[in-house]
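New to this. Please check both lines:
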Amino acid sequence: MARTAVKYSDLLDHYEPDSLCLMPPPIGWMKVGARGLGICATRDIAPGEVIEYSPVVVMSMKDLYRPDGTEIPIGAYAFHWGAEDENGHSIDCAIVKGGYLPLANHHVDGNSTVEPMEDQGVIKWYALKHIRQGEEVTFNYDCDLWFDVLDSK
């Protein structure tokens, strides 16, 4: 049986976005000085405005470690998720499976932040302050950093 190709434009004609879908997102990636690539605003973004709802895959924190106890590389990109054990450590973590969030750079005074929405299976990424068109969108990773912090200029 022959397959018929579906054009992307045909899909959009029948696509009904849900409340967690932002089309198009107010961001894109570009070169940001010594730090290489970063996420920048494609238009002004107001404080509190959602930048993206990033879908995640939830897994056990134990799955971030090899049998010898060393962390697998993707562990650096895991977000704490859900309940904590008696020592205050997350039992589960979330890995972003799409969107721009994994490409956003760290800044101690980031102009955006993230909030887990566990019931929706997404991370809400939103502006903390006014972000001007062309400005880099950053957030504080709030963890032990595995890299040297470079000036954002």
About this structure: Residues 18-139 form a domain with the Beta-clip-like fold (CATH 2.170.270.10).
